[in-house]
Amino acid sequence: MNSIIEAFAKHRIAPNAVMFIVIFLGLVALDRVNTQFLPDFNLNIVRVSTPWEGASAEDVQEGLAVPVEQAILGLTDVDRVTTTSIEGRASMTVTLKESAPPLDQMITEIEKAIAVVNLPEGVGDTLVEEFVIFDPVADVLIYGDLTLDELQVIADRAEKSLKGAGITKVDITGLPTKSIEASIAVDDYLSLGSGLSSIGQQIAGRNINAPAGITGEDAISAQLRIRNEAQRSETLGRQLITVNDQILNLNQIADVELVRDNNETRIYYQNLPAVKLSLSRTSGEDTLEQAEILAQWQTDFGAELPQGAEVRVYNEAYEFVQSRISIILNNGLGGLVFIMIVLFLFLNHRLAWWVAAGVPVSFFATIMFLELTGNSINVISLLGFLIALGVIVDDAIVVGENAYANMEKGDDPETAAIKAAKRMLPAVLASSVTTVAAFLPLLLVGGPSGAFTKGVPIVVIMAILASLIECFIILPGHLAHSFKKGQVQQPSKFRVKFERGFEFIRQRIVRVLVTKAVNYRATTFAFVVVALVLSFMLVGSGRVKFVFFPAIQAPEIQLQAEFSEGTDPAVVTDFLVNMETALATVERNSGEAFIDTIVRETNTGSPERGGLYVQLDASTERALTNADIIKQWRAEVAAPAGLKKLNFVEGQQGPSSNGVSIRLINEDLGQLKRATDFVKEELAALTGLIEIEDDIPLGSEQLDLTLTADAVALGVTPAYLARSLREYVDGFAVQSLQVDGEELDVVLRINEAQTNSWFALSQFPVRLANGDSRPLAALAQPSSERAIQQLSRVDGELSSVITAKLADRSLNLTEINQTIDTNVRAQLRDRFPNVRLDVEGDQASQAEFFADVKIGGMLGLLLMFIALAWVFESWTWPIAVMSAIPFALTGAIVGHWVLGLELSVLSIYGLFGLSGIIVNDSIVLVSFYRELRKQGMDIKDAVVEASVQRFRAVLLTTLTTVGGLMPLLFEPSFDAQFLIPLAAGIAFGLIYGIVLIMCFVPAMLVSIENLGSRFTRKPQVAVA
Q: What DSSP string describes 3-59?
């Protein structure tokens, strides 16, 4: 390595050539690397979904969910299975172990396991697919005074053109599913003498468009085709059927019409019907490139819209990406300017210039590494660049300052640069290894939080590796050639005065302080220990609180309303309109325009449900936070009669749920429901929790039918009766038709209005196996109860999930979860000893995170110790350096307290980075101490002299790192607040680290040396 350093330093072209290559490749990578707001999540999760039309949630659980989940749990690579059973469907989330084979292989294994399960009749095909998170790009509204059919034509054309332009995923909302429905009145049905299935089979058999073979030979061959397909309700109504030996048109016995599902979402914008197209990108696609595609599409498509139709683009996630990334970039530029000022203040201007020039070169190399490894530029990775900004300058400062010192001692510029690079190579390499060792364990953190924040250690590690290339291949040559040009110049008056003043501080203040710290080591140790204890008391007393992961605010809020069953849909609509007016009142009273777009949605799952989606002004300077707006909006609510549930959802991004999530587990549904209600009451008694809900709500009224003795005697089975009733109530699916590229179901059914009550249904004749008929009332006895709307299971056990939100952002979620984990758990154990309580959400992720951090931390410390022992050639000196790491927590915690911040996952990431930087500064000091000891200087004089000589480097590295983070510490935008704890931990920890490095480490080094001298044969000069 020394020969490579010398070769590049002496060559006039080589350093610049390498630099230009790195810059060029970095620019190419910058153009190719993906830009997005948050990093991509690669979650090891598979989704399983199986339909069972007409089955209740309890039937779905017992007959479908339980056998399927047991088959999946039998696979060795499955870590967790969470099951949800609702009316007509079972859905499962299968979390795989980290050691599991690739997802494609696991999907095949799951499909094979399900294929051998004996499922009930009527269960549909199971869909097994990878759980993919799509990153939103924007939403597009097509609206106007138009019918749904007119909107659908425009929406279909828009979808095709968007996909053709390059938008990967387009989801359409607001167009209820169409079907052709043939509705038969009860009286007509009873007079037919045949069931719906018989009539439906006739329609399906005659309404065909199918090949019938090929006739002829060679050139005169012809294809035969049967074409008798009706694609419109009018033509389908003229289809012939045979009933009671009579040939009739279908419309003679049924009303045939094109209908839309009344239970699917309808959308309105500015009180006009609308259709929403949600645009998303997949992993590997650039958000900003997708934005350019959308902008061009909007221009082209808008010119082709028919009269009365309008397009509105909102929820532009790409604008959110641009503005938030701009915050980081602006703070990074501010930090770079501060670093330049510090460098030019403390160093020769030529030296300062080339040290500063190494920053962009190293960053270009880092971007090149990011692109090669498939990573992206996002808010989290840019935060890694901010941390690296100060770290990579440190290495160049150490080499550059040493080169300048060599030249001042009389070496020629080339010799000074080469000697400095060779001399500092072991120390800089060791400091890089220790910093990498500090960040490397963060790559071992699993779960969503680990996937979310891995960009920070990845960028820092890559930047450190890039800085080594710049520091030892490029920098020495630049210093040598630059010093040759400027060696004859006399220093300026400012430089002379500054150096004189700095030397005064170093000799009269620093030397005295270090000497006293070494002479009074017990006092020094007591000071740092007491300071650490006091900082821990700030956390223990609650003055500095801990939150697992702070929420990242997104510029959106939602209102979700649910009314009692049977409520007139007009009541729901009127309430939503009134809430729009109430929000406008809040905006007017606030004095700032924060509303961008309001979209009203009705029939969200049922006619009794609806909501408002509010796109807020994405400006980072907005005074009111999302939580403030919701609080004032909630105060405007005038709850009408029948309002069952009202939720306000604050838009946020990131892995944090920012709410309470509790899972209760017990196989007895009745006991589980009672325990759930009890826990909800206990949560309601806690201050600060609102919108407390569970996931086993009661649904509509359920009629349980029990076969009568006569029915059993006649040979009627429950399965046969269920099939017959399903035909009456749900109708008979005749066939599916392709109409204008759209697949429409043809459904034959009894008039819905005549089957929606037990009185009407009980008179229906049920045909028996012998051809006779009996009224349903003679075959089954009904009993009424409220149906369970949803049932959940986890790893094969019945469970319920209780969720709650914080009423105020100032409340601490970790403290509330701890109260639940102790007090509520104890009370539940007393009342329901057989019910198990698990605190999930952030609390569960937090436990997983700290388990990974504990292992990673021990690994990092071990790697640091080995690196230090190698560079110092000592097993004891690394202890002096590493002993400063825990005491550096003092500055980090005090920094959070001073700025009023909460400790979080990002704070802990900052502590890992802090430990690496503290060790880096100490390495150079101990390396100089080692050289002085080799020259014969005694322990005390050597440690004091090394501290004094290295004060400039320690101060510079601290100021440059803190300076790089300083603008972010005072960033006023609330959208960047979640980033500040990481910066605060490093910045304040380093400021306090000056005390540790200049006082504690020398004192510890002397103590270790004195202790070691007692166990060696060769006596050393001890320090009193």
A: HHHHHHHH-SSHHHHHHHHHHHHHHHHHHHS-B-SSPPP---EEEEEEEBTT--HHH
Q: How many CB atoms sit inside 10 A of residue 642's CB?
A: 16
**At 278, is the secondary structure helix, strand, or coil?**
strand
pLDDT confidence of residue 143:
94
Cα(905)–Cα(449) distance, integer angstroms: 8
Structure tokens at 431: 């400091």
Contact predicate 95/80, CB 8 Å: yes
Alpha-carbon gap, residue 983 to 994, rounded angstroms? 17
Cα separation, 229 vs 497, whole angstroms? 97
Instruction: Select from 346, 347, 472 the least CA-distant residue to 417.
Output: 472
What are the tokens at 76? Answer: 């060795």
The string of pLDDT tens digits covering residues 820-843 is 888 888 999 999 999 999 888 766
Cβ contacts of 239 within 8 Å, gap of 6 or more: 203, 206, 207, 230, 249, 250
Tokens of 784: 């009424």
Per-residue pLDDT, averaged over 717-730, amounts to 79
Which token pair is 795? 């790893």
Cα 718–Cα 747–Cα 227 angle in degrees, nearest 5: 130
User: Strand, coil or helix: what is 166?
Assistant: coil
For residues 657, 662, 666 and 667, what is the CA-based torsion angle, rounded to 10 degrees?
Answer: -30
pLDDT in tens, 422-444: 888 877 887 788 888 888 877 87
Condensed to tens digits (0 to 9), the pLDDT of residues 745-785 reads 888 888 877 777 777 778 777 877 777 788 888 888 887 76
> What angle is formed at CA 164 by the lines to CA 159 and CA 170, rounded to 5 degrees?
35
Spell out a b/e string for 215-237, using b for 16 or more CB atoms within 10 Å of the CB, else e: eeeeeeeeeeeeeebbeebeebb
Spatial contact of 832 and 678, defined as CB atoms under 8 Å apart: yes
CA distances in angstroms from 322 to 34, 37, 38, 758, listed in the order given: 13, 8, 12, 59
